[in-house]
Give the backbone structure.
Amino acid sequence: MTGPTEGRDPQGVGRFDVPQQSPAADADPARRNGHRPAAQVAPTPTPTPADEVDTAATDEPVGADADASVDASTPGGTPPAVADRPGDHWDRKVANGLAFLRRRLAGDYEVDEFGFDPELTDAVFHPLLRLLYRDWFRTEVSGVEHVPVDGPALVVGNHSGTVALDALILSAALHDKHPAHRYLRLLGADLVFRMPVVSELARKTGGTVACNPDAERLLGGGDLVGVFPEGFKGIGKLYADRYKLQRFGRGGFVSAALRTGTPIVPVAIVGGEEIYPMLADIKPLARLLKLPYFPVTPTFPWLGPLGMVPLPSKWLIEFCPPIPTAHLTDSADDPLVVFNLADQVRETIQQTLHTLLERRPDPFGP
């Protein structure tokens, strides 16, 4: 047929007049057979005022891209959003995990001069510690507003628990609860950094040796630094002496704070004394193994490796108001000033411990 003909759309909804022409003899075979090449799109017929085309009734989508189908039932022709399938969440987790391993194997990550690896800490260590402090110990954190949002501060806490889990729990809880998600750079004893595997893990999570030069460098760089002045005397004391603060040494932490003008934030931790209640200390065995103490608890060494599982005590952590030191920078070498400030910090923590113990009458309660 060579002349214009009148036809209807396939659904019989609208009328339109489209001139029909026979394909030329030298036309592409696909055109001669009435087919359209996949890369080409049929032009949209121009509707007339009398007979408008119902595009919803045509067989082909109308538009510049023939491969993108549009749902005409949505406003403006926007395709409906596709909800995530149940497996998509795990697909993303697997993809992120593989990307993390690829970066680690390729060495595409950064550490600071102390060996701190923020990416490894966020991806591996903090999730594990989060299970402990949130689900196992049911930790409640208060007073986090006393920790500065930026700038340096020296966080001073009580030490307990036979194994120094309180330092790790404090660092993870502070990072999660603080509005700026700040990292706590822990100062550890020399023994920690002489142990092959433990030393590497301590460095990766931001720890360093408890000495004034390292502490002052971290504070001078604007970091949060965590210190436990009781040392092994705190974590190695018997259960009968629980929550009784031991001597704070010679106040070296106070000197570091004074030299840098850094505020001191006391923190009290209740709950660590009950995870491994220390009933006795086998001193001859400790000297043989070159350890500060060899603990005997209700589960260790009787149950072997199972005795290392901490008891699920209820934890309370409270940060106290900071003690300013900027006005005492000239007294960093004055023993009297250092002793008085260290005693003030110790007394603040001890009084806060008594208050927290009154709030938590049952060590293993909800």
In short: The radius of gyration is 35 Å.
